[in-house]
Queue: 4 jobs
Job 1
Amino acid sequence: DFSLRRRAQRAHSLPEVASVNGMSSRSAGPWVYIFITGAGFVYNSWADRRRERFNRQQEQLKNQIEWVNRQVADLYGVLVTSFHSTRRAYQHMLNTLTGDGSPDTLRSLVQNDPTGETAEEFRRWQTAVLQPLNRRAAETIMEHADLTDSLAHVPVMLQFVAHVNAYNIVLQRWATGSLDALATTRPGIHYPDELPDIVEGEYIRLKNRQATLLGLQQQTVSRL
């Protein structure tokens, strides 16, 4: 039968056509294996580099969060609490001891009558309330000054520490009955008036930074 012979000839010629037009299925096997192996190697290398980059980013983020947490908890959180408490206590003292809440009025009253009731009350406030708060702030600065980001703030902080230590001498004179220390009501080292505002600004900046690093939705504030 002609059709049967034709189909047999066609089937017999197929391998030859495949060999002519391209590589045979046997010869293609090793090349497919090499291609798959190479592609797998490239993908694994890319995935490893991506994983390493992600791990580095996570480690950096962790270090940044830990650093900001230390700044807030060990330095600026303590200082902002101390300075705010001192400000409120100082203003309350002024309002209590003077009629107008003015430090100049209080200074004049104490200088004019260093043994009077106003001077006695002033010394109580300084000894029992204000100086302990200042000592706590000074000790915090001495222990954790390395946590500040700005070297420009360090001299102001050190001036505050020197002021607090100098005031200890004034309190010792009061304790021994030497009231001539009230001639100026201040030690020889000037109190850095700008420090509380610097501390408040840094505290707010760090709290906002902390919220950003933690991915928290928090409204940015500029003042406490």
Job 2
Amino acid sequence: MAITVLWICSGLVLDAPRALAAVRSSTPSMQILISGKPEPPKKPSGLIITGPASSVSGSRSGGAGGLLGVGSSTGGSGLLSSSSGSLARADGSEQPMMDPLAKPRPRYDLAPSSGRPDELVFGAASCAAPGLMGEWGAHLRDQGISRVLALCNAAEAEASQAALCTEAGFAASAVTVVDIRAGGAKAATIEAARAAVAARERIAVVDTVGGAHTALVLAQYLHDDYVGGDGGTHSCLEVCELLTARKRHSGVAWVARPEDLQRFLAEGTL
């Protein structure tokens, strides 16, 4: 009597000829049916680390270059190419990728604008709660900050000056308030930074718009004092990339747009 055996393989490589020979030599009358239908690939779960295609090399799929082709998000498994540098979940949602080597974010985002050991120009977050201005000012002074360059609009200037002096505890002569959208803003901001450097005193640049204007003035200072150049596209791009790269060492993500910096340097206002 013939016996039929159905052997199902789930995606494994099977040495079928050797298996058949072994079985037939011991049981000549047995008929073997081998089905090697693989299981369909499982959908990825959890987080898939994605980033620029240039960050991972040596992987190809089909005839396209890069990871599944540059910018591709179709089919297959493994790393998906993304130009945003993010964590992509299986459902397609993304969240910013954390740099495991970056320093922790400092209190009040207080950090130097460059990696020079004697850097005197710092950036910091403004104090959002009026009742904490004293604590905010005390922390900055504990870190060696003796001057403040506050970036705000004309309507906020008087109140900001008063709060920095009476509540935060800085001397009136050490506080400079500038409306970055007013005429002469470029000259006023760089003059405040240069004066602090000349006096060998630390100055903190703060704003009331979440750090965008602080980043711009820090980029202006680095362009003037560190990178140099004519204020053209290439020098502005270099400065802004240098400032953004500081996040790993400072823990603070300052982002200034090269086109804003170029316009600010050329026109003297934002």
Job 3
Amino acid sequence: MESINGEEISMEIIGVRPGDEIEIDNCSGNNMDLFVRAFASKHRVPCVGYELWRRKLELKEELKSLSRSDRAYLFRSKSREEIQACYIESKFIDITYTGDSLFESILDRLSSNNNPVRTLVIECTFLGLRNRSDDVAVAHERSHVHLDEIIANKEAFKNCENIVFVHMSNRYGIQSIISGFASKLPQVLIKRVIPALDAFAVRKLTQRSYDAAKSFIQSTSNTAVLCESWASCIAWEAKTCVQNATVT
């Protein structure tokens, strides 16, 4: 990575394998533990995805009604093992990041894991807007995800609270990306989807494409096509990109 970026990376990089877990220091002082778990992914080169888990200890239901002083008295008379037995552990996934991957490995991961996912960050390289040049077969050949695969398996995302689309191909313009998602995504998905346009737009944005995207947002955000939060997010990202990009 240092040779690619042309600069030194001031961090220690440790390789991981599927199933490895890395504990993260908890600086918030609450009773939650954070850890990252790597999982197997399928791409043209060996790769993994990552899940950020939160592990929380909660008092058993029958003890929650006790006053603070009663709990303190109870715990003073118990060993450490007995105190631990007074709690139950709950876990949920804060963020799942798939990385570049075939859709089948993402589907396998979602199907085998019933834990709720607060935010799923999933690549969506191909959108199916250019006939056969970007169809599902091309996505499979290049080991990437196609939007039509996501739509066809929409029920697999039922436990995902938010879905962030990343890695859209440079072949699409901003207006095409926005209109493609808006026209193709079913309501069950579009209410939770946020397309990450910032890095893409900084490279590709022109005043004309920004005006077109803004016009599209204004024309659709008052209908059922785009939910208000998504339209606001796109408008904010597009505005930020215009401020940071060289407008031509």
Job 4
Amino acid sequence: IGMKVYQMVSMLLLSLMTLNQVNEVEGRYVTRASRNLVRHIRRRMERTYGLGLTGLIHPVTKAFNHEAVIRQRGGRKENEVVGNTYDMGLHHVLGFFHRMVSQENPTYFEEIEGKQFDRYDQVSFVYGWIVALHADPDTMTSSNCFLAAFEAVTQIDYLMADWAIVDETKNYFNVFVYGPQHIQGNLAASYEYCNLYIYATQLSYIFQFDYGYLSELGTRYSMLLSTEAEPFLTDIYALLAEEPTDWYLVGMRWGLLWQIMFDVKLES
């Protein structure tokens, strides 16, 4: 047992030491595999949604074409239902925080009926999150970062669909080999094109006990709590009150807050 504990502690220390070196890297080399993959993704998505992906995101209104995405994924099935927002306690948690930051005009999320959501709603939420994090909405659909991240989420959705019916199809190759391999490639391309190493850099500052960075975080989050928390929860209340709830817009609103929280935008 002592040897196992020693090995675990050694691996943890080695991981932290490696993480501490991440901040010394200013950029990431984009591999040929990622370049070829994103080139293939661009051609395939343009065949599906048109040049400039105008059939996915409207070039003027920026409206997201749910119908096209749902049609591409083969529709929405009854066995994809995940749960209900009220039963999961989401309304109580949001209501508690909103009453905490807004004593004068508290909003009672408990008054909203529970929203049943399925796997596409989850995926739609992440799509909106990705769009909100992008630095330039006007050039977003031509960005290699957006293409890689969008495709990574799509492939995860497809893998979950295959996993749900693997007992019927017996298609174990797609579930255990083909799907995970595609996801790994897309996640690698997203990491390289979107400069996601920045999150690892910020984490390394925390493990290094960089007091300047920790002080900056404390100041930033205290200001966010006082200035952004109430507007965020008010917008979420309005979005959840709509029927039906557009989880893409909920994801966008969360992405806008995330962008401020970590001071990071996705860039190609």
